Amino acid sequence: MPQQGLPPGNLTPHFTLHEFTASDTAAMRGINNTPTPAALAQLEQTAELMELVRAKCGANPVLISSGYRCPALNSAVGGASNSAHLYGCGADFTVPAFGSVLDVCHAIEPHLAEWGVDQLIYENAAWVHIGRAIPPSTTARHQCLTINSGGTYNGIVASVQPAEESATGGRHDRDQADDDVRPGRCRQGSGHEPEGV
Ligand SMILES: [Zn+2]
């Protein structure tokens, strides 16, 4: 249930439902991205996680570029078939007033277990993906990955080149790569996944 005493439309003190459902792609294509009741319940918990992120990032504004995606929207943006976004369990964001995407990843990484994070992804050097365990699982993997045009890497890898399209900024709505990582995959080898994602 939502917290008591919140303004209408808020999931938590600093996050509204709209922030998690707004999508340029959905608007352009006339997709109704209203969450299901189950997804809404997950979004409330995801917003609670984002409150922890916000506090860790100096209470600066968190800009969510992609939150919930209904199946039609997820297909439209080429999202992974098992994306956490489909369930209301994922968010892509930046905190520009705090620092770079890399800075934000480094701030969050020590807290994956403490906060019950399933996946933290430094994605295309352009945004942070954070995901909670996808129902019916409640087991968070505490996985930290870097994903970009070069492939998937274990941990936060700062030296890889960002994908070209990441320079465009704004709402990306793409992130085909996020979540499309099998459990345990990040444990392999030196981290580089030559087949990409
Ligand atoms: Zn994502």
Heteromolecules bound: zinc ion
The domain count comes to 1
Which CATH top level class fits? Alpha Beta
**CATH architecture call:** 2-Layer Sandwich
Which segments are poorly predicted (pLDDT under 50) over 5 or more consecutive residues? Answer: 165-170, 176-197
Largest sheet: 6 strands, mixed
Output the CATH topology: Muramoyl-pentapeptide Carboxypeptidase, domain 2
Q: Give me the count of strands.
A: 8
Q: How many H/I helical runs?
A: 6
Structural class label: alpha+beta
**Could you tell me the radius of gyration in angstroms?**
16 Å
- Order of strands, main sheet, comes to 3-4-6-5-7-8
Beta-strand share of residues: 15-25%
Please tell me the overall pLDDT: 85
Give helix and strand order, one letter per element, not per position: EEHHHEHEHHEEEE
Could you outline the blueprint of secondary structure elements for this entry?
Blueprint: E1 10-12, E2 15-16, H1 17-21, H2 24-29, H3 37-56, E3 63-66, H4 71-76, E4 90-94, H5 101-108, H6 112-115, E5 119-123, E6 127-131, E7 143-148, E8 151-154
Parallel strand pairs: 5-7
Antiparallel strand pairs: 1-2, 3-4, 4-6, 5-6, 7-8
Bound molecules: zinc ion.
Descriptive report:
By secondary structure, the protein is of the alpha+beta class. The protein has one domain: 2-Layer Sandwich (Muramoyl-pentapeptide Carboxypeptidase, domain 2). Helices cover 25% and strands 17% of the residues. It contains 6 helices and 8 strands. The protein has a 6-stranded mixed sheet with strand order 3-4-6-5-7-8. A two-stranded antiparallel ribbon has the order 1-2. A hairpin with a 2-residue loop joins strand 7 (143-148) and strand 8 (151-154). The longest helix is centred in the first third of the chain and has 20 residues, at 37-56. 41% of the residues are buried. Mean pLDDT is 85; it is low at 165-170 and 176-197. Zinc ion binds at residues 66, 85, 90, 92, 129, 175, 178. Zinc ion is lined by residues 66, 85, 90, 92, 129, 175, 178.
